[in-house]
Amino acid sequence: MSAATLSDVLARLKARIAGAATPAADPTALPERLARLAAAAGLGRFECEVLLLAALPALEPDGAGVLATAQGDARLRLPTIAFALSSLAGANWQAFAPEAPLRRLALISLTDESIASLAGIALPERVLHHLVGLDGIDAELSAVSTRLEPRFELGGSHGELMRRFGAQLSAENRGLAPVFELVGADRSAALAIAAAGARVAGRHAYQVVAEALPAAAGERARLAQLWSREWVLAGALPVLDLYDLTGPGEVRSALRFAAAIAGPLALVAAEPLAVPGRDSLRLVVPRPSMADQRALWAAAGAEAADVDRLVGTFTASPEIIADVTANIGAEFAPADGAAPLADRLWAETRIRLRPRLDELAQRIDVRSQWSDLILPHRQFDMLKAIAAQVRQRRQVHHDWGFGGSNGRGLGITALFSGPSGTGKTLAAEVIGGALQLDVYRVDLSAAVSKWIGETEKNLRRLFDAAEDSCAILLFDEADQLFAKRTEVKDSHDRYANLEVSYLLQRMESYRGLAILTTNLRSNIDNAFLRRIRFLVDFPLPEAAERQRIWRLAFPSGAPLDGIEVERLAQLTVAGGSIKNIALNAAFIAADEGSPIRMGHLQRAARAEYDKLSKPLTEGELSGWIKEAPHG
């Protein structure tokens, strides 16, 4: 078919309907946009003329009047199915079936009539705009999607995947229509590959967050139909983002939505997910290698010496690197009094890697130092050794080759055991401060789901989010998962053992430091203890250690009067209780308008002992002043 302008074709069609002579022209000529639409949607000549007929009332002067006259009823200002069948060549009733392209792709809409052949044929506004050269995504779709634009360069393995994706998407012009699965932990990289690959193929990609899709099945079916139409109109590629879905029911619902889209689409997800009834092309999106990251940092203007420690600790995606370098900007140039560039890059990268993990665990505000930790020499030296292994992990495993080829068993794991308040959490905080790494407390009671199999998914999300930042993960009350095992009696026991095995597996392969805590080491199964690299017992402090803790318990700005640290150290409590007593005594003193005195500490000590259900003995109060009366 040769090309023609839309106005010419519509003028000839109107004249033909009105019974007037038409100018000589190629009767098979179609407007260019309609010809492309016909090729993309598989429309025949009759279907194309139906679209032109439906466009007459909107685009031709008196088009509606001509249609009403031709149909013999002034009320019929839209062409009916009966009129189309009787006036257009190649008439075919099947063209109006729900499964045929015109209706399956929502290229036309029909008015409600009791007699089907009398239904009016309307042209949706989006189709009309497309035919006249105005392209913009449908308003219903723009409400649930965001156009993806490449924001940064993709290199290395990500660049190769992007080029492969673009080449395969270009092949859609030859009638192929698979689902593209972009699978991996790096969400931003998967979305970037989809955006850049679509651009290579001359298409536009739109992110559709599955969590934001409407709950009603009918509304979802409508959106799937509109996405199918957008592909044939403008080559819009929906990129269904499944990263935020956790429940199996939500995932199944999203996959049913994807299956209803007649045309190419991309899925981005942390793990493989098959769309029922659709062929798929799976592209595994890896985390960028150390070499890839160095190249990206270098392209942004950073020196190799400044990023060596970065790439050995963090796994920064192209998006993170682009954001960090954009934020630092002119600070790449040396400035008087400014922190070294390596330190600024480290701090900014650490902040940018937090959001995903912040949603899954509680970040501890790291402020403590080694001098704040009062422990026997043996335990103190073990904590120093843990920090050294984390700090030198890249050199020993990667540079010196101790990591081997499979990467198993290289995680640094520790069990901190001891009574409450002996410094287990403080020790994790001190190690984090020394290494300039974030520390996250993980609530195992929240991670352990009552639904079989859900615990593993929760832990997978946690570790996947933590891998990039190499954060220190602190699992409180490990007894819940690692208690001594009993005989497997039912499916719940079997799945509990699988969950423990999965957690140990992830801990052993985790690039950062994973710490388990327990108040009683004897509660932990010995089979689990053998797989932990460091076992650190936190004992109750001796008198000399309690004196040091008491001295640290009072800030330099606190007003003190007659405080006897030697007497305070007679209280046989852990460091956590010492801090509680000092703080509560400070409030008592402040309320009385006086400095902190031994009497205030005595009252605070009694309250702390009551909380611990522990008697305060005369020996512990030996030599103290008599407790001040209070009302």
Features:
631 residues, 6-stranded mixed sheet, single chain, Rossmann fold, 29 helices, alpha/beta
- Strand arrangement, largest sheet? 5-7-8-9-6-10
* Span between termini: 101 Å
DSSP summary, beta strand count: 16
Number of domains: 5
CATH topology of the largest domain: Rossmann fold
Q: So what's the oligomer here?
A: single chain
Basic shape: elongated
Cα-atom radius of gyration: 35 Å
Say which CATH homologous superfamily of the largest domain is assigned.
P-loop containing nucleotide triphosphate hydrolases
Strand content: 5-15%
Structural class: alpha/beta
Query: What average pLDDT do the residues reach?
Result: 87
Helix-strand blueprint:
Elements: E1 3-4, H1 6-18, E2 30-31, H2 32-41, H3 45-59, H4 63-70, H5 81-87, H6 101-104, E3 109-110, E4 121-122, H7 125-131, H8 139-142, E5 146-148, H9 156-170, E6 179-183, H10 187-200, E7 204-209, H11 217-234, E8 236-241, H12 248-259, E9 265-269, E10 280-284, H13 290-299, H14 304-313, H15 318-328, H16 341-352, H17 355-358, E11 362-364, H18 377-391, H19 393-399, E12 412-417, H20 424-435, E13 439-443, H21 444-447, H22 454-469, E14 472-476, H23 479-482, H24 491-509, E15 513-518, H25 526-529, E16 534-537, H26 543-553, H27 565-568, H28 575-592, H29 598-611
Helix pairs in contact: 1-3, 3-4, 9-10, 13-14, 14-16, 15-16, 18-20, 22-24, 26-28, 28-29
